[in-house]
Design a protein that fits this description.
Largest interface: A-B, 17 and 17 residues
Family (chains A, B): Belongs to the tRNA pseudouridine synthase TruA family.
CATH superfamily of the largest domain in chain A: Pseudouridine synthase I, catalytic domain, C-terminal subdomain
Order of helices and strands of chain A: EHEEHEEEHEEEHHE
Subunit structure (chains A, B): Homodimer.
Function (chains A, B): Formation of pseudouridine at positions 38, 39 and 40 in the anticodon stem and loop of transfer RNAs.
Strand content of chain A: 25-35%
Enzyme class (chains A, B): isomerase
Distance between the termini of chain A: 22 Å
CATH topology of the largest domain in chain A: Alpha-Beta Plaits
Low-confidence stretches of chain A: none
Structural class of chain A: alpha+beta
Radius of gyration of chain A: 19 Å
Shape of chain A: globular
Oligomer: homodimer
CATH architecture of the largest domain in chain A: 2-Layer Sandwich
Catalytic activity (chains A, B): uridine(38/39/40) in tRNA = pseudouridine(38/39/40) in tRNA
Number of strands of chain A: 10
Helix content of chain A: 10-25%
């Protein structure tokens, strides 16, 4: 058996998220369908770095699967892309050691979130950015970002629906935002992320940008460990799983 | 009665084109549904500068309608956008004289077409550009563009399915293309366009870019007035109705 690692991208608009489910179109479902065809009907299971929700996009999601076949990476890439739908693409394939696991071996994940800060709706951005019509104080938001960097318990900033037991402590290498024209880009690089964490943090940052909270409130919010202190989760369509890093040699 | 002119934009992906049809989602259908609601059930007919096909986008389509109501333009805009779906937006409203007609008074139309010239598929561009993986000689294409400028009979470059009787002579103010990174932008400004004309011209330009034809062939092709001389019509998703100009004061 060989273990194959793939870096994939998808437009999340028409997927009911990553995880396979009966009678809905999911990324895992489409990948396993293509792999099963390549394997003449033998079911091949796909493992990802993590799930993504309905409408969330991926520029660099990472998956692995095991196969009895021995093919050069370029042939895997071509065989898969021939069978996959237009909104799902495999752009890098690598043969990895048996010990590699797409989920357990993650060293760092990067998410990005895009806000289109214009009063006028842009029909071409509806599925790709969160259209936010009110003025925002970018400097206050940038200042607030720093409070998330480092090691913290992110209980306040994770979904109450999350069923993960274990620790809610995560390390953020980078939390930043900048504005270019009407587009605001948020970058999150961390050791791992809790369920809905990026979307809840963005909600808090937009509150700060509107002057409803102070940047320094973040310290207090983190300490209180209470999800109910925060408002709405921002919409999925602005969120991109940008990159997954593994320990060398599986960068 | 007042006559109202609206400049609208739409993402053509999920519309079966502009023109109203039973049991399908069209731009005209959505506009008339919203207007009928505003008019308490009275059916209001919408007239556009012209139709667009399934999958074709609009940055600046223009329509008009007649109404017994007297509302400031800003209120029309707000009322309509509240009722319209996310992929259709009214961004400018004007009260115009009774004599104005969105189709008959067009002075100039601008179309743009986008090609994504990369070997690797980009899942985020599938509905918005034509992904063309082969190398293209941009200079040859730019040179060929000039042959379309000016006044010509465009029979060779219009759909054989077109039912328009009348003249196939049109005047092109500008036909140009340029490449920026992997994106190629084609700009067409003309007095009017025949059915599928832009998409057939782009097909011929891509042939020239691949060295299958010479730029100077265009003169001969225009003279022969025969659609069968040309290849495939390029896909709808790269095409945008960019702007419609009217005689002053209806710019």
């Amino acid at each position: 058996m060989e273990k194959i690692k793939c870096v994939i991208s998808y437009d999340g608009t028409n997927f009911s998220g990553f995880q396979i489910q009966p009678r809905t179109r999911t990324v895992q479902g489409e990948l396993e369908k293509a792999l099963t065809k390549i394997h003449k009907g033998e079911h091949i299971r796909v493992h990802a770095s993590g799930r993504t929700d309905t409408g969330v996009h991926a520029k660099g999601q990472t998956i692995h699967f095991e196969t009895p076949f021995t093919l050069p990476p370029q042939n895997w890439k071509q065989a898969l892309n021939t069978l996959l739908p237009v909104d799902l693409n495999v752009y890098k394939v690598e043969v990895v050691p048996e010990s590699f696991h797409a989920r357990y071996d993650v060293a760092e994940k990067e998410y990005r979130y895009y806000v289109w800060n214009e009063r006028e709706k842009d029909v071409f951005k509806q599925n790709y950015m969160y259209q936010f019509p009110y003025p925002l104080d970018i400097q206050a938001m940038q200042y607030a970002c720093r409070y998330f960097e480092g090691t913290h318990d992110f209980t306040t900033f994770s979904s109450a629906k999350a069923t993960i037991k274990g620790s809610k402590i995560r390390h953020m290498y980078e939390v930043s935002c900048h504005k270019e024209g009407s587009k605001i880009e948020f970058i999150f690089r961390g050791s791992g992320f809790l369920y809905n964490m990026v979307r809840i943090i963005i909600g808090a940052l937009l509150d700060i940008g509107q002057g409803r909270r102070e940047p320094s409130d973040i310290t207090d919010l983190l300490e209180k460990k209470d999800r109910r202190l925060l408002g709405e989760t921002v919409p999925a369509q602005g969120l991109y799983l940008w990159r997954v890093k593994y320990e060398e040699p599986h960068q």
